[in-house]
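This part of the workshop introduces the protein records we will be handling. To make this concrete, we reproduce a full record directly below.
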Amino acid sequence: TCDTLNCVYVVQCQGCFQEYTGVTQNFRLRTNLHRDHIRHNRGLYVNKHIHSCSSIEPKFNIKPFYNKVKVNKDERTERLRLETHLTQKFKYIISTFVVTDLCNLQ
């Protein structure tokens, strides 16, 4: 749900259907930031990619992928480790660590 906290999430570009994994403490806030940054073509690479690649509305889909309910002092480190693991496991193209613009390759 939008009220999910401390989660790994997936954003899918509706132009090329490539996916991005991210981590956040507040899913609702992160979703709104992605939406605003895509609209204004700023922020993370994934936002700029979706702004230029997707011409339909909504330009992206977003959903929580993994939720860690219990929070501890190493929460961010744990989420980043998990994000890295999931990115490698599922081989998402648009990721925090792999900057590839598939729309320009076609």
User: Anything to note?
Assistant: The CA atoms of residues 5 and 26 lie 5 Å apart.
